[in-house]
Structures are given as C-alpha cells and as structure tokens.
C-alpha cells in the first residue's frame, strides 16, 4: 500500500511505521492520520507482524497537530470544529494503537509535541534517542491535552508529573524524560536505528499472543478490583495455557534449549 505522508516497512516480524513529513517535524495532518489508521489496521491483522515500531523521518518524531491546517480558517475569522476533527482523527487512531495485540514501540528520534506525545504514550514502550525532546504543547496554544493526553500520560508518568508538564508545556530532554519514566531507555543517536531494530526483532520472536493479553490485562486492571483482576488473569491464562507457544516454552525449558515461539 503506497502512502503519501507515512511509510511502512517490514523486516522479518517487525513492521516500522515512519511519519514522513520531515520538513514539518512530522506534524499530523488529516491525510497522515487516515494513513496511520489504515497502516495500524493492517499491521494489527497481519499475523506475520509480531512487533511494530513507530518513528519519525528526519530530526523530529511528531510535532503534534499540523497547525497550518487550521490557520486559514482562523485568519478568516472562523473557528473550526475541533471536536469533529478529533473524532475523525485521534479518536480512531489512538485506540487502534493502544489496543494492538502485539508490542508497539515508539522510537522517539527527535522532538514530540502535543498529539505527538500522545502518540508516543499510546505505544507500549518508548525508546528515545539523545536528541528526543517532549512538550505537552497544547497549553501554549490555549488548549487542553487531547488525543488521549489526559488518559495516557498519567498512566505513564503519574498524575502529578502529567499535570505539571500539561500545565506548563515545558520542553524536557531525553535525560529528564528517562528520569520521570516517560521513556524506557535512552540510546545514543549514533546507532539508534540499529538498536531499535534489534530490540524490536527480539520482541517479534516472543510469544505474541501472551504479550497481547498482557497489555490488555495491565490496562484493564487499573480500573478493576483485585478480585476482578484475578478473575481476568485466570480467564486469560486458561486461554494462553492452550497455545502452542506455551507448550513450546515448557518443552524448551525441559530440554534446556532456546524456545522457538510462533506467536500463537
Ligand atoms: C509545524 C508544527 C506544527 C505545523 C513544527 N504544525 N508546522 C488537535 C486538534 C486541533 C487543534 C490543535 O491541536 C490538536 C492537538 C495538538 O497536537 S495541539 C499541539 C500542536 N503542536 C504544537 O503546538 C507544537 C508546535 N511546534 C513547536 O512548538 C516547535 O516547532 C517544536 C517545539 C515542536 C520544535 O521546535 P524547533 O525544533 O525549534 O523547530 P521549528 O519550530 O523551527 O519547526 C520546524 C518546522 O516545522 C517549521 O516550519 P518552517 O517552514 O518554518 O521551517 C515549523 O513551522 C514546522 N512545525 N511544528 N505543529
């Protein structure tokens, strides 16, 4: 499938989705949102894809909403219907990313702003290059966090830090992001792509079905009582206990060899 503003490359079990408007720091347009929705729909359905990387071309990860899409309207005295825009774009894209039943890694190669932070937070893991920066830029243009920013960010870094970043819009660098848990690791810029690829390739050889269940269980458990979480774990574990990957894992352990998981 040919896209205008993103690319999708497959290497073994890894699909890499690259936002591709480097001159505009990969700011999100309506076209790009539609293309991301299409790409995620496809990688979710493709059983050969067992890990997904989301990254940006050039020096940015994603500068959030492309503000120029609204500029003409504002200049002519109109106030665009942001609600309709959100419903069409982010409200479709962000749940698709969050609910992908395979590992999704944000390879944050540069600046992430506004909805770009939300996109990174919607992924399971965030690996930053030393050049990464993050800003909850919404407040700087008189808006509240959208694209899941109020739901995702507190889950990643906690309420107090999410509130601070969202109230100030301050730009933080990769080291500060690591310190507050916004990213899982920081990798030197030289060799960043290779390290991300190796990490994603490793995840793509793991028991994909169990990883998908694990994501869902941890997400849901935040809203459950302990008793209900135990029940959900047991229900999922009963299903995982029937998978070939479970059998392979146990056999490999018994035979003192590396397991060969197929993802189901
Ligand atoms: C951009 C953008 C951009 C267009 C850089 N748009 N061109 C939802 C619904 C409806 C309305 C609004 O919002 C939302 C959700 C949101 O995401 S709100 C938040 C939107 N994003 C922002 O407010 C971030 C705006 N950008 C910035 O603050 C800076 O560009 C950052 C801090 C990201 C990077 O700064 P620098 O590294 O100094 O780069 P730069 O500012 O020089 O940008 C490079 C180019 O990219 C430049 O274009 P030009 O043609 O002058 O070279 C910028 O205009 C363009 N660009 N962000 N969001």
Task: Explain this structure.
The protein has twelve helices and ten strands. The longest helix has 16 residues, at 30-45. The protein has helices at 30-45, 68-75, 82-88, 90-98, 115-122, 149-157, 159-168, 174-179, 192-203, 208-221, 226-240, 244-254, and strands at residues 6-11, 14-19, 51-56, 60-62, 104-108, 111-113, 125-129, 133-135, 171-173, 185-187. The model has no long low-confidence stretch (mean pLDDT 97). It has a six-stranded mixed sheet with strand order 1-2-3-5-7-10, with helices on both faces. It is globular and about 70 Å long. β1 and β2 form a beta hairpin. α4 runs parallel beside α5 (115-122). The protein is an alpha/beta fold and 264 residues long. The site of ligand LHQ has 24 residues, from α2, α3 and β6.
Question: Which helices and strands, and how do they pair?
Answer:
Elements: E1 6-11, E2 14-19, H1 30-45, E3 51-56, E4 60-62, H2 68-75, H3 82-88, H4 90-98, E5 104-108, E6 111-113, H5 115-122, E7 125-129, E8 133-135, H6 149-157, H7 159-168, E9 171-173, H8 174-179, E10 185-187, H9 192-203, H10 208-221, H11 226-240, H12 244-254
Parallel strand pairs: 2-3, 3-5, 4-6, 5-7, 6-8, 7-10
Antiparallel strand pairs: 1-2, 8-9
Helix pairs in contact: 1-4, 4-5, 5-6, 6-7, 10-11
Bound molecules: ligand LHQ.
Ligand LHQ binds at residues 24-25, 27, 63-68, 70, 82, 85-86, 111, 113-115, 135, 137-138, 141, 143, 146-147.
Structure summary:
47% of the residues lie in helices and 16% in strands. It has helices at 30-45, 68-75, 82-88, 90-98, 115-122, 149-157, 159-168, 174-179, 192-203, 208-221, 226-240, 244-254; strands at residues 6-11, 14-19, 51-56, 60-62, 104-108, 111-113, 125-129, 133-135, 171-173, 185-187. Bound molecules: ligand LHQ.
